[in-house]
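2024-03-11 09:14:02 INFO queue: dequeued item PAS domain S-box-containing protein, len=646
2024-03-11 09:14:02 INFO validating residues
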Amino acid sequence: MRHLLPTLKELTRTDMHIYDESSVQEKLLPRPYTDSDINVTRPVFVRSGTGSAYLYCSFLDQLNLPGEKGLPSTSSAKSTEPDPFPVTPSFFVPVPLISLSMELAQVIPLFAKSSILIVKNDRDEWTGYITASDVMNSLHQAYRLMEAYLETTLETAGSALSLIDEEAKVAYWTSGAENIFSIRKTDIIGQPAANFFPPERLQSLKTLYTGESVYRKQHQPRSDLFALINARPVRLDGRIVGAVAAEVDITTEIRLHQELLHMSSKIQHLEKAVARLHPETDPFARIKGSSPIIRQCLETIRKISTTPATVLIMGESGTGKELFAKAIHDLREPETAPFIAINCGAIPASLFESELFGYEKGAFSGADPKGKKGKIELAEGGTLFLDEIGEMPFELQVKLLRVLQERSYFPVGGTRTKQANCRIIAATNQDLPAMITRNQFREDLYYRLNVINLIIPPLRLRKEDIYELTQTFLQEFSLLYNRHIEVIPPELFKRLFEYDWPGNVRELRNVIERLTILTMDGEIKPEYLPDSLTSAKVNVPSEPEHTVANLKSAGKEVAHAPNVTDSQQESHGPDHLAGVAREAANPSVTFPEQSSGSSYQQQMDAYEARLLLQYLKAAGGNKRTLAKQLGISRATLYNRMNRLGI
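2024-03-11 09:14:37 INFO prediction written
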């Protein structure tokens, strides 16, 4: 490949003459420029007895080497016989010897001594020579090719690409950058970037000075311009010598969404009325987003919907797994087919079997005398959605496995089997393979469920959907709370983009609801944002279940607090518990350190346990009070604690 640096072997010439020192002593060398027996276009080298190399002066003119280029004539012009000539040191130029194993970077400094170098092999044999002109020509050609490749690649990328050197001057500026910033390449290249943009808004300068790399960060290089930027420092020999940035203009999108949010309340109410009269038939209508990763998920759903196969949906908490399950159901089932959802973590283990399989009359004390249909029977001809499948009691997993294998089951207290005529979709935010290793989930059930796997991306991996989601939630809550939103400042969108959203779409929805409630004058202000968005940059793990608000999955290392009286329980009300929540969010409660010997779930269990411990202490050790204050059932709390071995 000609754009790469040439090797010494590629640069080596072999068209040369070699003489020994004895030829010099015996004056057997031909007269320079006149001897017809030697090709004067080839260099003549002399090997001394010590192994040193010399270039005979007949080649001096062609190489422009220092030395005596003319020889005094010792014969008349009419003489036809070559006259002997004295051999003196001025007829020879020392030439350095190099090895083929040397790097080009080691060879280049030797050209300061001579513009021609002898090449020898590993047996110390002279195999050829290289010249400075050949090296320079090869380097220049490689540079030109590399420059052409680089320029074409950068221009083809389509983004606004720019490069600043270590002096903070613009070294490269693509046509995409010209279009976005309206600055011509001829005007900006070679000039300080700070001459065209406010230095405090230049991410490239920050990257140059600090070495910080950013990816898809919301960026505002000018007051009238918004962009998503990727920036990385350019390093050479461990030193930062520049910074490169790729930017995508999102100003139009921001302004468009701002204009859309200026709609009158009358139009909003009309849209709501129309929606009630004409229900949406598009199964993907409730899934908002147009990012490539979401489009890929929807395409996968279309493929899944052509089969009745069991589907396992995996994704972090708050990503909307049930919406995707409902979309699969709507695509592959008739309009009248039932969609029955059951939360495996919200039902006590003692009642789970009867909820899932139903029971016959008189099956147990307190049972409905007429019996009761289970969720499987209710889902006949449709879809049974098992949410939080990782929370299903271990002893019941084998019964669900039988349903998947045999497509039949026994109701509680029943003696005759019933057929399970429904499709199964399961969802979880947990690491099921890790649970299998801890004997918390059956391996055979996992493989039965995991026929088709659909992974829902977290919001931090599709931030370009934040605008559309924000618009959707604003419309919903402005109608609900009778608020008319007129202005959304750019600083607010900037903070929404910079946040990593550990709670995903659910957290964004809650934030927009909060902003709508607090906005009374039609303008959302940044100070209405919750503390999690206004504080320092959030650093969160890439897995779910780690926020203070998500206490339903808290687990291990909880100390057993003593029992307390009712009066003591009353002293630990919601206000006091909220104070403990703030204390739990304090940096003193840190994430577990990364350990190669522990899985992510084990680390998160330890962290969540510390949060739950503080809540449990606030409730005086009374689990019933704690469950009530957390807004969950006592059975759910016990279920979680039992599953985690507390």
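2024-03-11 09:14:37 INFO annotate: The chain has five domains: 2-66+87-138, 158-253, 292-457, 463-533, 601-644.
2024-03-11 09:14:38 INFO item closed
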